[in-house]
Fold this protein.
Amino acid sequence: MLQLTILFSVFAALTVLAVRMAEIIPNLKASQFGFLLAAGGVGIAAGATIVGQFGRGFTYGQLNLWGSLGMSGSLVGLAIFTNQLWPVLLLIALLGVFGALVGIPMQTTIQTETPSEMRGKVFGLQNNVINIALTLPLALAGLAENFVGLKSVFLLLSVIVFGGGIITWYNSSNH
């Protein structure tokens, strides 16, 4: 649940931060932030394809760890190349690819590990947690960007993703 919450929070924050990036990237208007978000969607589709084709050779914990490290690295890259269009598009696409490496195994784990008599409660909880993870960052990302700047927000998100990945990997390797 932790990893899915972090994953959805990062992509919710990205929807707010993409508008700001579109404002500061030369030759891009704020109204064109959808191009940045579309790169993330392309990345998620590519990541889902990769997991589907090659994921069977890895444990869910390994996929989650590599996905978390890749997301964290992509967010650091976004902090560095914030106002350069092509690197930003590539990094957001990579964020999507690595996000799929986190999301798909974690969702599969929840589905396979939940006893049938608990599925309603667990999926109800998951739905509420994800709804919170999608709304809270929308407000917080904009405020944080105003107070500490875009680069700092990306670095903070990177640390959160990295930490969540390590915690989940550690927990999964000890079971």
